[in-house]
């Protein structure tokens, strides 16, 4: 929002100055015509033609500078790609084939602190959490409270500043990154949907699944209406899921986790935020039935669905306010 405001302000600043330049040119032509007329005379048609062309200068200058600015903005993407290719270290996947990491799903945060940059405040401030294997946990809190930062730290997307995160007592820093992430099923807030068939979108990240398994998961996830609308599992989905509702995109993302099966921990980041209460409960029931042993950690703003979880964790300002059963009342700070 701040960048957009700056862009609009800069555009207005430039537009005013271009208008002043165009008016100055028109005035200069008019004054020159008057002086020339007093000295030798001038063709009025030529004067009118010159002024007409001068009046179009504002639009031409705006178009020229607009094209230049758009080119500069697009080149930022090229610069970032080049930076990723030259300056960002590749993730080390050595040992991926040799190391087997099988754990029950117990997650422990011991005095974990994290910040996204050295000049920014702590996103996680001395977090201590213990989540048992097979437990269904809801994390609630206002925007910016640090909920998503827990997932970033758990998946080693951002290095922690201090403390330790363990899975069944094993530090995640000692586990090869591809092996670690393969143990998690992630349902993001904004699912990745690409142009292709529904079947192709459902089997992303899944190995050794056949069409009957996919059809069964789609049926129990109540995607029947979607399949009828687009023509079954072979029906085409537009780029970004433009022909799907937000809820349908999230259900597809949940189905991917169900099809993968071998996930010890399922991370759900606001995936049920656009679903009504009945569908929310159905999705949680699907995970419980098809992944009964998995630990489920769900970031949610849906307070009426907290009874579906074993434990509720309340967060604010990067700290844990409370960890307890859903029967306990939610604090005023979270509700406000």
TrEMBL record:
Q: What's in the keyword line of the UniProt record? A: ATP-binding, Cell membrane, Glycoprotein, Membrane, Nucleotide-binding, Transmembrane, Transmembrane helix, Transport
Question: Cellular component GO terms, alphabetically?
Answer: plasma membrane
What compartments host this protein?
Answer: Cell membrane
Show the Pfam families listed in the entry.
ABC_tran (PF00005)
Molecular functions (GO terms): ATP binding; ATP hydrolysis activity; ATPase-coupled transmembrane transporter activity
Where is the secretion signal located? none
Give all residue intervals belonging to the ABC transporter domain. 107-334
Sequence intervals crossing the membrane: 20-39, 45-65
How the protein sits in the membrane?
A: Multi-pass membrane protein
Record's protein name:
ABC transporter, ATP-binding protein
Its lineage reads: Eukaryota, Metazoa, Ecdysozoa, Nematoda, Chromadorea
